[in-house]
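re: that complex we talked abt at group meeting.

here r the seqs, copy pasted straight from the sheet so there may be weird spacing, ignore it
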Amino acid sequence: MPDDLNLLPVRERTDAWSSDATRFESLGGAGVAVACEEPPLATGCGQPDARGRADLIAELERLRSERELILRSTTWRIAVGLRNLGLSLPSGLRRPARAAARLGWALLDRTLAVPATTWWVRRAVARSGLFDAAWYVETYSDVADSGIEPLRHFLTHGTADRRSPGPRFDTNWYLAAYPDIAAAGINPLLHYLRHGEAEGRFACAIRPSLRPRAATPEERAARRRERRRHLGLDGPAPAFDIAVGLVTYDTSPEDLHRVLAAARGALRRAGAGEAARLYVIDNGAPSRADTLAPGVVLLPTRGNVGFGAGHNALMRAAFADGATLYVAINPDGLLHPDALAALARMTQAAGGGALVEALQFPEEHPKLYDPDTFDTPWASGACLAIPRQVYETIGGFDEGFFLYCEDVDLSWRARAAGFAVKLCPAALFLHRTTNRAPDPRRREWMNGAARRLALKWGNEAFAARCARALPRRVAAAAARDVAPVPQAQRAIADFSNLFHFAPARW
Amino acid sequence: MQDDQLDVVMRLHDASRTAELGRAVFSLVGQDHRPLRILLCVQRFTPAMMAGVEDTLAPLLAMSGAPTLAVVNHTDPLPRDARAALLNRGLAAASGRYLAFLDYDDTVYPEAYALLVARLRAAGAAIAFGGIAQKQTEFEDDLPFVLAKRLRPWQGRTIADLFEENFCPLHSFVLDRMRLPPALRFEETLTRLEDYDFLLRVCAACRADFSLIDTIVGDYYMKTDGSNSTPMGGETSDANIAAWHRARTTLEARRRTTLVAPEVQRAAGLPAPVPGLTIRGLLDRLGRRAAPAA
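got the structure back, here u go
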C-alpha cells in the first residue's frame, strides 16, 4: 500500500507513534492505567510545581520527538541541498530567498496535495471489503440525492462527517475506542487498513446486541436498571430448593471430589446450608459410593444411556425429593462459589420460568446473548439451571440424543412453550474445554446429534449435510425414532449458523 | 527454591477492579499445575482496599485444592507508576522453581501452566511461551460481554521475531528460575514496555522455547472502556506519546548493549555464533528491520 495513502500526512507522524504505542501497550500487560490514574495513589504529583515540571518535561519530550521525526522525514532530507544553497547566498539575499522558497513550497504543496479520491486511495478502500455502496446509500439518504458516486461521496464528505463506509467498519466507534486516531485527525478507515488491523485493533465493536447500544446517559441508566432487574439483584432473595446433578463417565475419584466440593461450597453460599442436595449417576463403570462425600445421592447406573437420559434420572429423583431448581453440571468443570446464587437470582427474576445457563469460563461459547436482558437463543447444558416449573411443563431432555444438541433441543422447546432462555454472566462455570486432545468420536457424536436435531426441527438440508459427514449406519441411527415438532414451532430453530445454532460473536 | 512450585505474580493497582481480579484468580484455581502460589502485588492499598480484595478472594481460596495466596502491598511513595516495581516485589517474594505473571484482568486456561512447565522440562529452556488470544470486551457493572475474539493477533513466532518486536504478553510464558540469570529484575524507570525489556534480557541470555506458540493458553482482555490498552486522549495523549517514545528509545539502547549468548544466536539462525554480538547486531546479521534513527 503506498505510503502517501494517508490523507493527512502531517498528522500521520503522530499517529505512527500512537500505533506503536497501542500495539505495545496491548502487550505490556493490563496495569497500564497506572500511569494515567489521578492523584489518590500518587505522591507529590498533586503539587503544582511537580505537576508543572512533569508537564514541561512531557512537552520537551514531545518537541524532541517532533524534531526527530522532522529530521528523519523524506522532505527534510530532500531539501537539504536547498538549505545549503540558501546558506551560501549573501546575507542580504537570504531573507527574500526564504520568502520565495516558502511561496514556491506552498504552491507545490497545493499542487501535489493528495486528494481523497486519488486512484490508490479508492482502490485500497474498494478492495478492503469494508466499503458497502448499497449499505452506504441506504444508511445515508442524502447520498442518493447528491448525485455523487457513493465511494467518492464517502471519501470526500463521509469521512469528515464521521460516517461509516459499511456495516463492518464503525467510524464513530473506532474514533471513540482509539483516541489517538481521533487526536491525530487522520482518516480512521485508512488508518485501520494501513496500521490498525495489523496492530490487532478492531474495526467496530461487533456488538451483536439484540438492541443498539445505549446512546445517552438516561438510556445507559435505564439499561443498567434493566440489567439489575434481570440479574435479580434488586428483588427478594431466591426461594429455591436447589439440587445439583452430575452425570459422570469414569470420572476419577479425585476429580469427582473436587467438583462435588466446589458444588457443595456454591450450594452453601446460595443458602442451602448443610442440607445440600447433590445427585450423581455414572454412565460408565459404577462409581464407588465410598469415594463420594457424605450426603451425595448416588443413583444406580443404567449403563451408558447418554447425557440427557442421565440428567433426566437425576432430575426425577431431585424433584421427587422436593427440589425446586435443578442445576446440571458437567464433571469436567468447577462451579464458582457464587455461581449457584447468581443462577437462582436470575431464575427467580424471570418468575421461575426460565432456563438459565452459567457463563463458561475462561473460554465461553461464542453464541449471542443480549448483554442487557441476557436472553440467548439456547442454553448450554454444561451448567444449566432447570426450574421445576419448566421441567413439569416440557419434560426433561429428549433421550433420543446421546450426546450434544440435547441442550439446544431443550432450549428451543422451552422457548416454544413460552419460557425464557438466558445466560447469566455473573455465574461462572470453569469448564475444561480448551486444548482438548482431538477425538474423532466427538465429531461423530456432534454430527449425529445435529442430524437428529435438524430432522426433529424440520431442516432436511442441514440433516443431509450432517449425514454426509457420518458413516451410513451412524447417520441412520441418528434418524431413528425422531418425533418432529409441530410446524408452528419450527421458526424457533436456527440452522443458518450451522453448529452454533445461533448468531455467533466470533 | 521449591521444586515444582509455580509462583504466579499478579499485580493490581486499582481497588475498584476486584471483580476482574476474582476472575483472574478463578482461572488460577482451575489450573492443573500444583503446587501453585499466588503473589498478589498491590499498589498503595489502604486497609479498606485490602479488605475488599480479601472479601473477593476468600471464597475462591477456600475451594478444594486452591492455590495459596500472599499479598504484597507496595507502599513506597516512589515511583508513582509502580507497574515494574510491583513485578519486582513479586519476583523478590517468589520461592518456587517456576514463575509466571498475570495481570488482574487477564485469564489463563486450566492446562496453561502444566503445558508450559512440561515444555520447560522437556526442552531445558529457561522460558517457554504459549499463545494468547485477544478478547475485545465491554464491562458493565463488573460483568464482561465479549464482543469479539482473535487468536494470536500479534505477529511473531521465533526468538528473532521477539528481538525485533514484542508479540508475547505478560501472561504468555513461564520461567524456570533455576536457569535464569541471577538478580534479574524489571527496569523500574520504565513506565512502558517494562515486560518487553525484561524479555529481551532473559531471551538474550537463556534458551527460550516457542514450540507452544500456536497453542492458546490464555486470553488478553482488551477493554472498550480504555482501562487497559489504548493511550489516553485529550491533554494526556502527548505525555503518553512521550512516555512511549522514551520507552522505545530505552529498548533500542537495550538492543544495542545486550549481548546474545552463543546458543541463542544459534537458535536465532546464526550458524556460527559471534562473540560479543548484541541483539541489534544479531538482527542486522539476520537481515531484520533496521533500527530506528537515533
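couple things i noticed - Residues 48-72 of chain A form the longest helix (25 residues). Residues 352 and 418 of chain A are 12 Å apart (CA to CA).
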